[in-house]
Amino acid sequence: MPNTLLQNTIIHNKPPLLIEASGSHRQMGRQIGEAGREPIQKSIENARTLINSSKETLLLDWEQAKLQSRKYLPFAEERYPQYVDELRGIAEGANVPFDDIVVLNVMEAVTMDALHLTRCTSFAVNQERTENGHVYAAHNEDWTPDDEDGVMVISAKPEKEPPFLAMTYGGLLSNVGFNAYGIAQLIDSVYPNDVRIGIPRLVVSRAVLASRRISGAMGRVLIDHREAGYNHLLVHESGEMYSVEVSAKKFEVLSTTDGAIAHTNHYLDPQMKLIEKDPHELLSSRVRYFRAARLLRQKEKHSLESLQAIQQDHVNLPNSICNHNTEEEYPLDREKTISALVIDLTERKMHITWGNPCKNQYHTYCLNA
After folding, report:
1. CA–CA separation, 25 vs 340, rounded Å?
2. 58 SS3 class
3. Is residue 138 classed as helix, strand or coil in its secondary structure?
4. Helix, strand, coil % in the chain, rounded to nearest 5
5. In the prediction, which pLDDT does 20 show?
6. DSSP 292-353
7. Of 89, 138, 232, 348, which has the fewest CB atoms closer than 10 Å, so is most exposed?
8. What pLDDT score does 5 carry?
């Protein structure tokens, strides 16, 4: 693969936007919307352009996507009205229509997963496998290149829930991060064939950040009437680590005995594999999974730096762990690593890049609890 892909990588000379939010969920949403108004508005425009330009494949345009997304709201409002309030606040603060924010947060469902962005990578190591005895959770967030400008860090103090520190972008609810109870969540898209109208995946993921126990986090992941599911890599400061593979109706919990765990975008459990949609399209996910697992095995004791090196890996470029797949002809197939992060649960810190980790600096944020 020509080095032009790497040479053309965007370099950000400043850290991602930090937004501090507190109060009720509506108030927090407004604060996030106001502080992130420009990237949120741009994210909506990006999504509108992507959907409208792919109408022949998706069989819907932006106006139809808004109508479809509304079907998911009653399920979210019945179980998690506080997070719908958060979305309403984001819309108010960013001065955008609420319907547009809803589409962003149910995008995978309303497009029937046609985006098929298959290259996020998550992994974790506990104190048995680190030089300093810390517990780390690492994630590469791969998404459409146009949304890279919208990456932000949310430091939140909800009124009635634990404080948390999370990465998000555009107008999406926070989901990848950790809270004051020492629980981290990393999510990777998976592709089951039992998707239905129900509680949106991102709303379910947002709820996990309010968990006070690891079993409670699992319970929130597996809530009834969910629309589908992700793989939720849940990590606790004690060193407990679980991959919870989820679909609309099924799940499996995977653990580890060697202090390290990894997951990408295909199901690992044999029973979950039976309901995987189009597994032949997930070959790059399998390559990244085996690559990440091998790199984790190569060192008996990992450090922050060795985990960051895994995030920067280019084997199978452009569909590598550090993703540079930006030159596909079809817009739905273009993606890249828009952020990489390593959470140190022991020290309650997040080390995060804005853009590809091979070219961009890690910036450190602390949980303000």
Report:
1. 27
2. helix
3. strand
4. 35, 25, 40
5. 98
6. HHHHHHH-SSB-HHHHHHHHT--TTTTSSSS------SSGGG--EEEEEEEEETTTTEEEEE
7. 348
8. 81
| H or E element at residue 168 | strand 164-169
Q: State how far the Cα of 143 lies from the Cα of 333, in Å rounded to an integer.
A: 10
Helices 98-105 and 81-94, axial angle in degrees (round to 10): 120
- Distances 349 to 139, 155, 217, 368 between C-alpha atoms, Å: 14, 11, 20, 10
> DSSP string covering 250-287, please?
-EEEE--SSSEEEE-SS--SHHHHTTBS-GGGGHHHHH
Give CA angle at 209 (203, 215), nearest 5°.
105
In a 10 Å sphere around its CB, with 0-12 CB exposed, 13-18 middle and 19+ buried, how is residue 11 labelled?
Answer: exposed
Which of 89, 125, 35 minimizes the C-alpha distance to 305?
125
Residue carrying the six token digits 């509304």 = 70
Range name among 168-172, 311-315, 328-332 with the lowest pLDDT average? 328-332
* Cβ neighbours of 257 (radius 10 Å): 6
Distance CA 246, CA 195 (A): 11
Cα–Cα nearest to 137, from 222, 263, 230, 289: 263
Domains of the chain: 4-366 (3.60.60.10)
Burial class (CB in 10 A: 0-12, 13-18, 19+), 220: buried
- Quick one: pLDDT band at residue 55, thresholds 50, 70, 90? confident
- Which residues, in sequence order, are CB contacts of 265 under 8 Å at separation 6+? 118, 119, 120, 188, 189, 190, 191, 231, 282, 285
Sign of CA dihedral 119, 124, 129, 132: positive
Question: How do 336-344 and 136-143 pair as beta strands?
Answer: antiparallel
Average pLDDT of every residue of the chain: 95
Give the residue from 242, 346, 358, 281 showing the smallest Cα distance to 119: 281
Supply the DSSP string of 195-262, one letter for each residue: --SSB-HHHHHHHHTT-SSHHHHHHHHT-TTBS--EEEEEEETTS-EEEEEE-SS-EEEE--SSSEEE
The pLDDT value recorded for residue 8 is 87
